[in-house]
Amino acid sequence: MKKAVVLVSGGLDSAVVLAMAKADGFQVYALSFAYGQRHHVELDAAKKVVAKHGASEHKIVNLDMRAIGGSCLTDDIKVPKDRVSMDRDQTDQAHAVPVTYVPARNTIFLSFALAYAEVIGSFDIFYGANAVDFSDYPDCRPDYIQAFQNLAALATKAVPGKSFHIHAPLIYLTKAEIIQAGNRLGVDFSLTHSCYDPVGDLACGHCDSCLFRRRGFLEANIEDPTHYF
Amino acid sequence: MKKAVVLVSGGLDSAVVLAMAKADGFQVYALSFAYGQRHHVELDAAKKVVAKHGASEHKIVNLDMRAIGGSCLTDDIKVPKDRVSMDRDQTDQAHAVPVTYVPARNTIFLSFALAYAEVIGSFDIFYGANAVDFSDYPDCRPDYIQAFQNLAALATKAVPGKSFHIHAPLIYLTKAEIIQAGNRLGVDFSLTHSCYDPVGDLACGHCDSCLFRRRGFLEANIEDPTHYF
Question: Most buried among A159, A213, B80, B138, using CB within 10 Å?
């Protein structure tokens, strides 16, 4: 059985990615980060998702991204609310990188995934990049993923006949399609957490991530199990 | 004055890189990591080097690379000794990646440097990669650096007319040439620390890093201020 490193954030997307990697027949090594998030609901969700779907190992790496800062997800900057319409056609987001963008976060996470893959002898890394809803995040674009794959080939000990593959199976899916795919693969969405700014254990319901999630369930015609504030 | 992020490990090479960045007229933002090294002598040296040469800021980021492991520098694996001859022509190192290689370490470090650069608005990152003495480390090769530069362009918020430059000014220099350059730039080598396996505050004198350093000072005909065990 081939080994894969799967980045699991605790969100809806990475839960679907984990289920996809398992369905593809990979032996899963889950990787999460305590990176100085404003809240720990996310990491608790990651643990539950991995426990539900099963993995050979789940590593949680501590890294202090607050030391670098530059995002409302790590700094004390207000999370923007009510910017996403429930009607996709009405959405008129400015094409600018949002303050929820954490500088180079995916690059840092993929670098750790690469280290982990190298240690366990895996050449497959899965992550939930999406170029539809999060089109303004530079490190979620297809050409970024290709560039990371090129780097991975040069960054590690070469093994003849092997090369790294960065899998981003959600890249061209809408949130509704991601939810439908997860639904078919038995993902329990009630375990997942998307909110950038939870109120206790409840999702705020108004940040970009909550709004994309709510709209996704609406469009997928699947009941949203999320408890909103 | 242009800003540059400089990776400072506490070793001889990165001290010279820091001096070069300053000589090139950059305003320096130094970056070091507490990454689960086996010892803290290295980080203490980084602080002294930055204090000597001056920097606008010195960030030390905590990250737990022991969680990933895979190297004698983070795990409890014995550091190999006496593998490097004092006579360069007699050196017959096997061309294999040594156990002192930390999987994807430079990729992780450069990713943090990229995050830091993005936050402070810098497009220049300096690091002490060397393809001469450390030719067997995959992430010290020129084509790796080019691949990281390509990634950086795609990984971050685009700024019109700006692109990242990964500077590796030591890449083609021998250790002796690095020492000579540092000497001209006023680097105080007594502050730096290269040993992989120090005995208290003393360098072991026999690991690859100590041996390259010792040979470098010999070849440069400059007195080695290091205290060896």
Answer: A213
